[in-house]
Amino acid sequence: MKKFLFFAFMMCALFNGLQAQNVDATISPDKVKFWVGEGSNQAVMIISWCEPAKALAWGYRFDAEKLHVSVMLHDIAEADSRLSYEGTGYLTDLRFVQGRDTFAISPDWIMYNHNGGYSCAQADTITWVSTWNTPVEPVTVPFEYDQTVYDGVVGTEGCQAIHCQDPAIIGWATGCVVTRGFQNMLNGGALVTYGTDADGVGAATTSTTEHVVSLGDGGSAVLTFEKPIQNKPGYDFAVFENSFSDTFLELAFVEVSSDGENFVRFPAVSNTQADTQATDRTPIDATKLHNLAGKYRVGYGTPFDLEELADNKLVDVNNITHIRLVDVVGSIDTKYATFDSRGHIVNDPFPTDSYSAGFDLSGICVLDGWTPGQTSIAQYARPALAIYPNPCQSYVVVEAEAGEEVVLYNLQGAELLRQTANDSRMTISMGNLPSGIYFIRCAGQSAKIIKR
Length: 452
Description:
- The protein is globular and about 80 Å long.
- It has three domains: 4-138, no CATH class; 162-379, Sandwich (Jelly Rolls), CATH 2.60.120; 387-451, Sandwich (Immunoglobulin-like), CATH 2.60.40.
- The strands form eight sheets. Strands 11, 12, 14, 16, 21 and 23 form a six-stranded antiparallel β-sheet that branches. Strands 1, 2, 3, 4 and 10 form a five-stranded mixed β-sheet that branches. A five-stranded antiparallel β-sheet has the order 13-15-22-17-18, with no helix packed on it.
- A hairpin with a 6-residue loop joins strand 5 and strand 6 (93-98).
- The protein contains one helix and 30 strands.
- 2% of the residues lie in helices and 33% in strands.
- The chain is mainly β.
- It has one helix at 69-79, and strands spanning 4-8, 35-36, 41-48, 55-62, 83-86, 93-98, 101-105, 109-110, 121-122, 136-138, 162-163, 169-172, 175-179, 213-214, 220-229, 235-241, 252-257, 263-265, 269-270, 289-290, 300-304, 320-327, 360-370, 387-388, 395-399, 405-410, 415-420, 425-429, 436-442, 445-451.
């Protein structure tokens, strides 16, 4: 007969021959997510960390009639690298480390589930009567990165990006309402101010500064269309952002609605690591992103296929009237983070503390069932104006062709510098300028730069 056993961990338990006890618990086996071992019997191991008040539960499967706690702890710690302990017959330390969180308990503290009640108590002898009142949480399975390699940057084989002048585009959003997010969510307070709702309407361009509206940290935009969007073979619409490069990517989730009330989100995937915070100097790899707007540089939209949502009863994929974009707050701090469809933190440059923080919307186009390759991207104009480092401190480098004129403006539109490039790279001194937002124009293109 299958056994269901529950353990709460004793710090001073002697491991030799300790047998499982049938007791009540505040978590049932069907709620446990992390299982170790094989067999017809099941046990749940619970560790209460006391400070902070947190209790975590693992599952253990086995066939033996008796279960040594030492074996269960050893096997679970072997399977879950976040859990560690010292000692063999006598525990001297017990730790659980996940991201920035570290839980630890020192010797002589016992934790035991007694008839559903819990407390944290110290004992000088081995007893099974102390209880704690900490709720028990299932331990999540450590995140495993999706091994899928998605399409890469513009110009690479298999790229799905659509140019803003592609003849497959049959229309653009006709209405836009932006709910502004923070310049820096960590500080709260000031909201972004760059652009207007009207900048989200109509055709996107190859400009990083014109016809752009910033959402800010956690901000959103709802766009509407003259006619409902229908699900056709291939991609049905595309979202454009104003990134000045292939690797500085500010992302947004994409949701659609048939009534303006019920929105369904495309299943986003981010395989970008979430251990180290991405900053404005961290390159983001497009091949690790899927169903996130902002994947490509300015002038190229991220396409979406309504067929992916065809089975969702909350939306009619042949009558899409609203598209909502929600800024990805790129923080890896769980207090602020946003997550993809698998519960993984989406890591993008954070913070980008300025008037134009977060996702910058350039437009949303409607497609008549578009598939990559219908129009070669090679036929379009040269890549977006490349300027780096951005943000900058003492200087910026502008990639231009010899003889081209480079002009620097401030946020108010006043011309600060006009210079002709001598070769393919021109350096502009920024050290004597105050911190803020500036614009550079060259060969009919413009780009926004941030001076720290």
